[in-house]
């Protein structure tokens, strides 16, 4: 009797322990959540419609008493795109993973006792199908939503500044440039269509794209930048340390348990879930993305932070070189804003790295503390949220005003994704032109051809070469 009681108690304890270990995370049902606030936190794959400011806010900010807009300068990322070739191969495999998840829930019965997918989300996942039109042939192409991102952006700014963004194209008044990619060229065409009407781009001849694009893709031709980017792969980098942190590992484990797996999913599988969620949400802003239902809000916060840390050191304030890489673009902005002559409208179409590097160059969205592997909770209110600063179709617009004020005849407003970009030395995004010139004086006098790629890597390389020469000379003299 006693032995039987002991065995029964042991079984109860083991069962309770197993049930406890089968708990995952907070209960969350994506399908029934009317707000889905986490969709703003999808890092550089955030939908522009979700990240942008409201029309009413930008309309209020654009009206400056006693001032008239006279010049418009824009740096814009391409709109929503399809995945790249490598991503497509990885995303295709989600069909098998989806089938395993359904098997876990309905046959193996290994779903967690707490934090499981709700019935609505499970049905959403069951009905998901890979779109075979998403093929390597069209890798990284602009989508229909991406076209609309830029077309409606043009319509928005034309509505704010009709005297500057006039509806009839004049080659002396307008200057457009894009990089040598389909997605930026299509984004330019969509923007032009928004300004001047259907297929207006057919009547516009652009300047040739230089083989080395210092203005819009300087990072591609900067060895020091490429070398710094590789640091994210080092085990000592903040990005890799965060991936190895208990918080990140627990998040990956929770995602795995939530989907009914008794083992931890591989990094490539987590990456595919995260990417598919974000792509589908950006392609179809008003629809539910089945793979987003897999992730709770807290899990999204962790995945977003990992990407923000990576970009902080690749394109942000984590490396001193990054404040110089976009030198040509910053200098170009100042040159055009300084001039009272044509062109009046300057619009460039580039990529998320250039937008981030430009913001770093002008000192925008800078936090007091650096993003690190050990300060996730302290940085929840950080400024460096790539979902807010570099979503699809991210754009920075600088508008110059002619004002009646004899003390300050020119003022500048900066908009980031249709929200006033508020520097400490400006008033709700409205800056004195003299202060802009003073703050960005470096880019007025810089020799960008020489300076844009001079940084820590280059500075470290020269002493190393010099030391090698000295050592070789000593060895030679001794012999």
Automatic annotation (TrEMBL):
SUPFAM superfamilies: Phosphoglycerate mutase-like (SSF53254). CDD domains: HP_HAP_like. It is an enzyme of class 3 (hydrolase). It holds the Pfam family His_Phos_2. GO terms for molecular function: acid phosphatase activity; bisphosphoglycerate 3-phosphatase activity; inositol phosphate phosphatase activity. Its main location: membrane. InterPro entries: Acid_Pase_AS, His_Pase_clade-2, His_PPase_superfam, Histidine_acid_Pase_euk. Disulfide bonds join 67-403, 277-292. Its EC number is 3.1.3.62, 3.1.3.80. This is Multiple inositol polyphosphate phosphatase 1. It comes from Corethrella appendiculata.
């Amino acid at each position: 009797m006693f032995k039987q009681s002991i065995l029964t108690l042991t079984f109860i304890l083991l069962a309770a322990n197993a049930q406890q270990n089968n708990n995952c995370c907070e209960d969350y049902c994506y399908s029934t959540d009317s707000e889905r606030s986490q969709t703003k936190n999808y890092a550089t794959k955030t939908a522009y419609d979700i990240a942008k400011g409201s029309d009413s806010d930008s309309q209020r900010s654009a009206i400056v008493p006693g001032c008239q807009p006279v010049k418009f300068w824009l740096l814009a990322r391409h709109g929503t795109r399809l995945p790249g070739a490598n991503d497509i191969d990885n995303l295709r495999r989600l069909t098998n993973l989806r089938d395993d998840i359904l098997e876990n829930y309905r046959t193996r019965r290994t779903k967690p006792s707490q934090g499981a997918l709700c019935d609505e989300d499970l049905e959403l996942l069951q009905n998901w199908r890979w779109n075979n039109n998403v093929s390597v042939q069209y890798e990284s192409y602009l989508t229909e939503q991406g076209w609309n991102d830029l077309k409606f952006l043009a319509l928005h700014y034309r509505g704010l500044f009709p005297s500057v963004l006039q509806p009839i194209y004049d080659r002396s008044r307008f200057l457009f440039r894009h990089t040598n990619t389909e997605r930026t060229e299509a984004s330019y065409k969509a923007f032009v269509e928004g300004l001047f009407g259907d297929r207006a781009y057919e009547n516009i001849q652009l300047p040739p794209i230089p083989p080395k694009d210092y203005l819009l893709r300087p990072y591609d031709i900067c060895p020091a930048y490429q070398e710094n980017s590789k640091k994210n792969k080092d085990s000592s980098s903040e990005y890799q340390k965060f991936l190895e942190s208990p918080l990140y590992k627990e998040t990956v484990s929770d995602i795995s348990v939530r989907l009914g797996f008794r083992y931890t999913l591989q990094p490539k599988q987590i990456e595919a879930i995260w990417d598919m969620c974000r792509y589908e949400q950006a392609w179809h802003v008003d629809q539910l993305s089945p793979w987003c239902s897999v992730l709770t809000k807290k899990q999204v916060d962790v995945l977003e932070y990992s990407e923000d840390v990576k970009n902080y050191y690749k394109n942000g304030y984590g490396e001193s070189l990054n404040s110089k890489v976009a030198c040509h673009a910053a200098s170009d902005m100042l040159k055009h804003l300084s001039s009272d002559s044509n062109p009046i409208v300057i619009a460039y179409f580039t990529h998320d790295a250039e937008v981030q590097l430009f913001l770093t160059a002008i000192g925008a969205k800078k936090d007091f503390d650096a993003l690190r592997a050990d300060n996730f909770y302290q940085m929840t209110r950080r400024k460096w949220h790539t979902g807010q600063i570099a979503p699809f179709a991210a754009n920075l617009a600088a508008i110059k005003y002619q004002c009646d004020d004899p003390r300050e005849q020119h003022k500048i407003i900066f908009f980031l994704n249709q929200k006033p970009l508020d520097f400490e030395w400006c008033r709700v995004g409205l800056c004195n032109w003299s202060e802009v010139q003073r703050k960005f004086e470096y880019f007025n006098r810089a020799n960008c051809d020489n300076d844009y790629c001079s940084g820590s890597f280059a500075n470290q390389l020269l002493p190393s070469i010099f030391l090698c020469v000295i050592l070789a000379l000593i060895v030679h003299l001794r012999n």
